[in-house]
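S.,

Sequence below, as promised.
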Amino acid sequence: MTVQAAFGLAAQALLVAWIFWTLAARAPSHFHRIIAAGAAVAAFIPIADGVSAAMASRALWGDPSVTTLQLLVLALAGRPANVGRGPAAALALFGLVFYPLALGLGDFDPYRLGYAAWPVAAALGAAALLAWRRGQPLWLWLLAVDLAAFAAGLPESDNLWDALFDPLLVAAALIAAVRGPRR
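The prediction came back faster than expected:
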């Protein structure tokens, strides 16, 4: 098994753990953790023909981005990130423009820019530093971990965009932007 495959399967197990964590929200906190951990372990158990739930979900929708994984880890640790409505709306709008263009709507393909990763990373780093200077260190930390994981070759894709965001994250950002902060 390659490092990328192990990373992808662990990412799927983390996603399953978060789903069960969310579903068990009303359970006492110690059961909450047991349910999430049990679901993560169960995701690796082969169900049919040697295929586990982690393998099946990875085949279905691919690997989540490193950013998504970081936000899931923060949520599972009981410290959900306060992204804010404005940044969530910006990410949702970016994704809603990015994905149709990347899928061939129009002549410009922004996905190709992700293969020239380091100029894109430098531009995003400048934006993250600006957010950090404005008192929002989350963006700088997210980007730093994303770039470290990308440089280490953990994501299977060689495209930086796949390490930074994914359709699941864009959908969550859209929901957060429309719904606003939770009470």
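Residues 45 and 52 are 5 Å apart (CA to CA).

Coffee later?
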